[in-house]
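haha ok so turns out i had the wrong file open the whole time. this is the CORRECT one, sorry everyone. sequence first:
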Amino acid sequence: MLINCVAYQHGRKLADITVDDISEYLIKPDCFVWVALKDATPEELAVMKEEFGLHDLAVEDANHGHQRPKVEEYDEELFVVMHLIEEREGRLETGEVHVFAGPNYILSVRNGSQHGFLGVRARCEREPKMLAQGSGYVLYALMDAVVDRYFPIIDRLETELEALEERIFTKGAGRSNIRRLYRLKLKVTLLKHAVTPLMDAAAKMHSGRVPDVCVRSRNYFRDVYDHLARINTSLDGIRDTIATAIQVNLAMVTIDQTEVSKRLAAWAGIFAVATACAGIWGMNFSHMPELQWEYGYPMALGVIGGLSSLLYWQFRKARWL
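then structure:
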């Protein structure tokens, strides 16, 4: 679906144009065309390929989707893939945006995401001096918008992790803590898969041999790279903390199990004494003088109770009970 198709010259908007008029504006000096598509069909991409002269391999990747974040250079054209991460009902969902950037055009194709880039277009149009740099600056603005959307997700992951850390020492919560920690780890891994490859790709756009499209905006791509590096560092910290939390939680579960084992062993020891005494006096031998003694039964109960009480006191003192 076509979202918008706009022609710009010297950093200012000329007009909203139709797809058929794209080729006419591309030949104008200091003019570039910015087209945005959502969930584009192969037919729509075929039309854009014809209008902009897009590379076959780039169009094929855009049609297939499910690409790893990357930046590929085809002559004067750049093909950029970024993941759009959104949180829906407590789960992270992944979409994609494919960006084709050439000397006088920028084409963005958004798939599987509800959040558009109308704010990016408005921001660029408010800065005509920057927009005059052409498609390179628009590519930066799109990448910056995608990366900035990762920061709120990082904040929510850190908040969730802090809440889980407080629950670790809650008795009886070991199983649920492990389950929630692993769900959080899956979210971190998903975000990591979006950030790390994109960071490597962004490095190509501001250092070494910079693609021609990005030359005038290379300093801005360095800012994108710095943001990605910060996010990557935060994700590494969260992942390390999760690993530590899992180990601590398992240790707490082991401690709880040990406490239960101690209580069971203590009560087993107490009842073992009573059982032993009852077993001795229950053998009914003929020559057991206490069997004929008037106070034999109270004495037996007293011995059993006394020994049991002594053991109970010893186990309480040792904090087994």
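Residues 218-281 form the longest helix (64 residues).
again sry for the mixup
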